[in-house]
Amino acid sequence: MKVVIAGGSIAGLAAALTLDCIGHDVAIYERSPTPLRGQGGGVAVLRRMMAFLEQHGHHCRDMISVPTHRRRWIDRDGAVTRDEPEMLPFSSWDAVYRSLCSTLPPGRIHYGRSVTGFEQDAGGIDVHIDDQRIRADVLLAADGTGSSLRARLFPDYAPSFAGYIAWRGIVDEADFDAAAIATLVENMTLHKAPGELFMAFLIPALDGSLEPGTRRFNWLWYRNETDSDTLRRHLTDQAGQVHHASIHPGQLSDDSVATLRQLASERLPSVFSQLVLATRAPFIQAIFDALSPDFVEGRVALIGDAACTVRPHTASGTSKAARDAVSLAESLPADATDVVQRLAAWSAERRAEVTSLLEKGPQLAATFGLGRPL
Ligand SMILES: Cc1cc2nc3c(=O)[nH]c(=O)nc-3n(C[C@H](O)[C@H](O)[C@H](O)COP(=O)(O)OP(=O)(O)OC[C@H]3O[C@@H](n4cnc5c(N)ncnc54)[C@H](O)[C@@H]3O)c2cc1C
């Protein structure tokens, strides 16, 4: 089968790998003109994605993650209030992305090409890629949480803002005196205050190095934001453009960066505020819940964040993308003829599988006092 994939990020790459593996003719169209880089910061790589990378990629847990040994909560003065074992493998979005890209046979990804529409009939689907039309059997929408293909299929549906934002940043371990960061190294360290949660952990260097001294701290600061004017101000970039859900590193307005720095100095334990103040290119993501009304419409299937976006506290976005990819390949063997029926069955099964994950996110957020009350 000819499978066109819109979006060459984690979900698109994972699906391309599994479908290519079983003999389908796969082509990814990614709107970014160049391979993606450094946009996502740190990720905890849970079991499914780690197993996926070990089976389909060139990497295993020890090669792409900085192990964490303890989960430690600290108060405003930096005193430890809770300390428990934690063995999460923290990696970076880049490391996961590179591992997937490097395994895909060459020529499968076309950069600088946007999927702009489609028309389907009984025999196939015509996919519009900029000015070109490509005939395919299946179109996979792996175009992320703000999916334009989902909007085309379900124009009345819109993701809902969860009521809080995440300020994020990455800063080199080498920028600090060893003594100043000693308590943060190889721990996941957290601080909670009403309506906010800060966390920091080490991730690999941009080139993948895990050598002490070369790694990076990833920090996230979740904060409730109920005021729509403030939210709009934070989502307005340096050039004055208002974004729907996120602003990439280096594009925050000077006003937002100044607000972030001031809040950090006033509200965070000093071991954390030093990370925020040293971060050259902080970024922001508003947290949205998205569950597409359906995961399939005829020959179009939605995967990854386009199908549903789980809360970041579940740390399961990449693992969910891996499961989407594996389950799709199981549902679409190379000799399948009843594609539409098979995709419909896949959709029903996947929706049932992700329900508990979708419920878990808001519950976890509520335990931290984040988001609207349940
Ligand atoms: C604050 C935060 C923390 C997170 N932490 C974790 C974590 O610890 N662990 C974890 O597993 N996950 C985490 N995630 C989630 C994880 O990053 C995503 O779930 C995962 O990357 C899957 O994304 P995706 O490939 O579906 O979409 P995206 O990464 O959004 O990619 C969509 C791609 O489609 C392209 N595109 C869009 N429209 C078109 C078009 N029309 N034509 C062609 N290309 C197009 C875009 O350029 C982009 O490359 C976190 C998310 C957030 C917001």
Automatic annotation (TrEMBL):
<dbReference type="InterPro" id="IPR053212">
    <property type="entry name" value="DHP_3-monooxygenase"/>
</dbReference>
<feature type="domain" description="2,6-dihydroxypyridine 3-monooxygenase substrate binding">
    <location>
        <begin position="161"/>
        <end position="289"/>
    </location>
</feature>
<protein>
    <recommendedName>
        <fullName>FAD-binding domain-containing protein</fullName>
    </recommendedName>
</protein>
<dbReference type="InterPro" id="IPR036188">
    <property type="entry name" value="FAD/NAD-bd_sf"/>
</dbReference>
<dbReference type="Pfam" id="PF01494">
    <property type="entry name" value="FAD_binding_3"/>
</dbReference>
<dbReference type="InterPro" id="IPR054707">
    <property type="entry name" value="DhpH_subs-bd"/>
</dbReference>
<dbReference type="InterPro" id="IPR002938">
    <property type="entry name" value="FAD-bd"/>
</dbReference>
<dbReference type="GO" id="GO:0071949">
    <property type="term" value="F:FAD binding"/>
</dbReference>
<feature type="domain" description="FAD-binding">
    <location>
        <begin position="294"/>
        <end position="358"/>
    </location>
</feature>
<dbReference type="Pfam" id="PF22607">
    <property type="entry name" value="FAD_binding-like"/>
</dbReference>
